[in-house]
């Protein structure tokens, strides 16, 4: 671990801080709570975000001068003062499953004057008596009756639950009158800091000149590269989204764990900043990948999403998936492709002409589906995105995937990228032909970017009918295999109905939609902007 400089004042005193910007504009720091899902406790960590790495730092006490013993164990002598006593408060105890920890140190009193005790120090010994397995009440009694000179051995508890620490000099919770039971939240300062009847004036507790000097500093505990990393409020396999926490997972599987924030605004700020850095690195990776690809096989967009599994009930689960729009295909990966050979590992591959992208629903925090007029969901009262934002990818044979992203800007980027990738796929493909049947005959139905719709006999290849895209006035289908296409004759202006039956009707309908939209966009370049639901949301 590498040592950081002295922590900012709010962090040094154990007070959760708001987002801070360091001297270097590209580096941002802030305090969060790291939730331990095993113990259920949360403890303070410091986040340091650069363009390429998120570093999680934990506080520790280190020896900065002198040749004393390891900072892990420190032995300090306190001289009880007539006013203020030992000048500290404690919390915890073996009965609560946590060590006895110094929760407050009062400024300029005995404990503070030593310069060797810190909030978060766990008591190991009091006057040579081991207290690691002692109850809260036993340690209070021992300290209170230890005399005017008290020697304590301590060890800084790096992952002490946050409720065991209080800011320096802040008031602790009051005890219940007449209650003999202790609590891990109960602060015993009043019992420890009163002067005993035989206490005489004593010299202040102060560091000896030759004693080592200790400081509490933030030390690097975990560094997460952001290239191809994933940030989300959704834990894989979970049925709910965390409203005030995010989790960052690196490409190698290393994870930050759930990082909790005190307000939705802080969570939203960190989510946006980490997402922005990941997006910048993703764009760089795309440019590098495209150097090895032909012009018709370029990566247009890629990134992490969460895929919703199960039905529309209350038992939905989510799993991370990596999507990529490359050439004329949509790729669905379990893990990102990092080499040219990895592209054959895709879990699913779909031709873009035969899929339909749909921004259709918004996943609300109360786990209810609601029709999304996205212009109504601007920001929550705390300034954060409602998110996550959902979109569907409808594929052949009536199949579909429901994906979600955390930010409205990500949804807008996916929508625009799907439109561009699909239009380019249509222009490269030029035409698609499907086997179908009509009136008992085996036919071929072709959708052509230049000619429109053509139906011909599969054996003789003779053309039975042909219509331009502009002549298609409507359609209806049975949801299974049969479709009725309504065309307007250029000569008579009468509507002609053509009924066909396909093996995969969904793919054909998506193809028709893609070709018609691409044809319109080729004539009217502004057409894509008018079709962007998420884009209108972002601009509003």
Automatic annotation (TrEMBL):
Sorted UniProt keywords: Actin-binding, Cytoplasm, Cytoskeleton
Residue spans of biased composition, Low complexity class: 168-185, 193-210
PROSITE patterns, alphabetized: PDZ
Gene that produces this protein: SNTG2
Family to which this protein belongs: Belongs to the syntrophin family.
Keyword flag Cytoplasm: yes
Stretches assigned to the PDZ domain: 75-158
Principal place of residence: cytoplasm
InterPro entries from the UniProt entry: PDZ (IPR001478), PDZ_sf (IPR036034), PH_domain (IPR001849), Syntrophin (IPR015482), Syntrophin_4th (IPR055108)
PANTHER family: GAMMA-2-SYNTROPHIN, SYNTROPHIN
GO molecular function: actin binding; neuroligin family protein binding; PDZ domain binding; structural molecule activity
Coiled coil: none
Residue span of region Disordered: 1-25, 168-187, 192-211
Location relative to the cell: Cytoplasm, Cytoskeleton
Protein name, entry field: Syntrophin gamma 2
Compositionally skewed regions (Pro residues) per UniProt: 1-10
Organism: Bos mutus grunniens (Wild yak)
Ranges annotated as spanning the membrane: none
